[in-house]
Amino acid sequence: MKFTAATVEDTRALGERLAALLKPGDLLVLIGPLGAGKTAFTQGLGAGLGVSGAVTSPTFVISRVHKGPLPLVHVDAYRLGGALEVDDIDLDADVADSVTVVEWGEGLVEQLAESHLEVRIDRRADDVREITFVPAGGDWADRLAGLG
Amino acid sequence: MTDEPLVLGIETSCDETGVGIVRGHTLLADAIATSVDQHARFGGVVPEVASRAHLEAMIPTVQRALDTAGVTLGDIDAIAVTAGPGLSGALLVGVAAAKAYALAAGKPIYGVNHLSAHIAVDTLENGPIPEPALGLLVSGGHSSLLLVEDLAGRVEQLGATIDDAAGEAYDKVARLLGMPFPGGPPIDRAAKDGDPHAIEFPRGLTGHRDMEKHRYDFSFSGLKTAVARWIEAREKAGEPVPVNDVAASFQEAVCDVLTRKALDAAKEHGIETLLLGGGVAANSRLRAMSVERFEKAGMRVRVPRPGLCTDNGAMVAALGSHLVAAGVAPSDLGIPADSALPVELVSMVEHDVRVTR
Known about the structure:
The structure holds two protein chains of two kinds.
Chain A: E1 2-5, H1 8-19, E2 27-31, H2 38-49, E3 63-66, E4 72-76, H3 86-89, E5 99-103, E6 116-123, E7 129-136, H4 140-145
Parallel strand pairs in A: 2-5, 2-6, 4-5
Antiparallel strand pairs in A: 1-7, 3-4, 6-7
Helix pairs in contact in A: 1-2
Chain B: E1 6-11, E2 16-23, E3 26-34, H1 36-42, H2 47-69, E4 78-84, H3 88-105, E5 109-113, H4 114-120, H5 123-126, E6 133-138, E7 143-150, E8 154-160, H6 166-176, H7 184-191, H8 208-213, H9 221-236, H10 243-268, E9 273-277, H11 284-296, E10 300-302, H12 306-309, H13 313-325, E11 347-348, H14 353-356
Parallel strand pairs in B: 1-4, 4-5, 6-9, 9-10
Antiparallel strand pairs in B: 1-2, 2-3, 5-11, 6-7, 7-8
Helix pairs in contact in B: 2-3, 4-13, 6-9, 6-10, 7-10, 9-10, 10-11
């Protein structure tokens, strides 16, 4: 399932729309080069989930937990040296009760959940972003149908 | 003045295990162990490795600080520790160690805010901070403008980054330019031989619309992206990348926004002193531009020496000493490490302070 986003606001808006389909225990793996809009997409998710605290880059702290009706665990594996363990994320966070979003986590974090949604953000030559949702297991494909 | 408080400070919010000892405003010891080398070996930070490194370094670093200061744990009046914000597992090691030392030696404990500690460290070099003061805290993890009305308890965040921290942008741009981590020093060096006006990189959140909603906030993600695109276009065209010019122009954009917004905030709040802190405060361009712009407006800039700008235990001890002298109540032994401790909490009093606030 592919979408285009002409501006960073569009990227955020798509994150906000996806948020409506999320449930506890979900794992999202964000893939895209530096400056693609991974954090912007996560800001949209945060807005859609109605979580507290500003969603900013977690590169330095590795992970940040945003409390809310459905908490958002925002992880950045950019500085990580190896596969991510659940214990590394946050001692206060329960992955099973939250939505976990990981930037730079391709190949490192898929084992955190039985299924996950891959979100690929590619930048075209005209600066428009192509955002592709790739379901990996679970009922992701069915849920994405709701996005229309 | 031997009646000034003798305070031991412990800092473990990120990669550095820091233990500092101060008496009043006098620095007696500043011992540091870093796990950066270990991270380099793993090609990045491994949270478990970071926590373990803090654990292994803790007791020797405390001992080294005590030896340097020529005091014993029994002489210490209070123990201060960074309770947050930071890496949760890393913070936990420092907080647990501080509790153990406090309990064993029967001393009060102060769980303090990492950001306020970066401000407080300046007292060790330049004496008491005139209040109100404006704090500009820039590092790999933070970019915040703080209104310091009372360092012992009233610190307000006027603005902060809405995406990447300034130091993080330095690190990522350095990587694009093939420079080592941390990116601040190599970019600063390269910039000295470059033209800061060669490329007009964007100044985040300075447009009219942004200034309403994000007057004192920062954004460095767009700048980072602009640098990446610029380099990419050059490479695609088969032209060489003028590394020094890119470094200088990038650095100019970062420092321009930081100092411009800080100056606006100082004017609006009638503040005459700017305190620079955090690792990026070691940057030569940021120091020079701050001094130039603030002195032109008849204001002062205070910056600690580079070694005290980066994370260390002395800054935690300095804030602890200030709290003791101000008569602030110590923290409860049940305080947690709080990875998202809000700026407004200079120190924790009770373990459930965030719930009852």
